[in-house]
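Subject: complex prediction, re-run

Hi both,

The earlier run crashed halfway through, so I resubmitted it with identical inputs.
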Amino acid sequence: MDHAAPQSPAGLNTTPSWLLNQSATHAARLLSEGFAAHDLRGYHYRLLATLAEEGPASQADLGRRCGIDRSDVVAAINDLAGRGLVVRAPDPADRRRNVISVTDAGADEARAMGATVDRVQADLLAPLSSTEREQLTRLLTRLLEHHRRRH
Amino acid sequence: MDHAAPQSPAGLNTTPSWLLNQSATHAARLLSEGFAAHDLRGYHYRLLATLAEEGPASQADLGRRCGIDRSDVVAAINDLAGRGLVVRAPDPADRRRNVISVTDAGADEARAMGATVDRVQADLLAPLSSTEREQLTRLLTRLLEHHRRRH
DNA sequence: TTCGAAACGTTGGAACAACCAACGTTGGAA
DNA sequence: TTCCAACGTTGGTTGTTCCAACGTTTCGAA
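This time it finished cleanly. Structure:
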């Protein structure tokens, strides 16, 4: 929807959920373009970054932390393991679990993708002052915090 | 990303694009649940609301205004016409076009869905004061305005 | 100690949004 | 007249988010 300028219906495009949706769509698009250079997608980045930041974890645990369904974690970890960015090993202490760890190459990739995300972030927030960026972050955090608590 | 200074939950959860994405996902889920009661989806609402607000239009025009691809407009209008909520008629002035108009039932449905959207909106923004809601709306509008102008 | 509930990884598939390519028809400008 | 653009339509693809079910493994309560 990024082609022609959509003449905005006054009622529709002033609703926060519409604005949120459009902003997120645009952000996701920018991110997706950035990730394409790494030949990876959002799920991979979330998992890789979480692993790099918080250390090894089971797949179910990763899913909970990243907000990704267990079944989707499987596929994404398959991809990452196939590239040698993470290692999947059975947990000797609990044979139901796999322990996922980043490799050195995985850590490098996580840093590289982090740089990409930083770039995209700067692009996305270009029209906002740093105070406004803080404001936006604060408001969205409050929103999510509230809705997370009642679930 | 802020891999240099990770915050309490994780560095991931403080990036605006992540917050935007999560907020929009939550909003979309609430909306989707609301729309389910009408047995319709987001595309249908956008089209119906735009028609009700701005009057009859061609399908291509609708697509541009709503930010929906031409091909998706076809399917959505098929659904709406099949329910008698809109009417599809050939434009005598330009035989390439169809003119889409809302029926009375369509206008009723648009109002009903509008009420649903209002309810969802209130639920979504519950944790924010009205000043903060304005702030959020303003920030997101600025964001979109900026990015729309350079495409 | 036994047994049922729960968690785990995995497979397969669904829904939805967004998008793209191509076709035949029609309109308008060069 | 010729050629390009716009239109509606068909038939896809991709990515994200879910859900249901399975066999295996663990753990808690009877």
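The longest strand of chain A covers residues 86-90.

- K.
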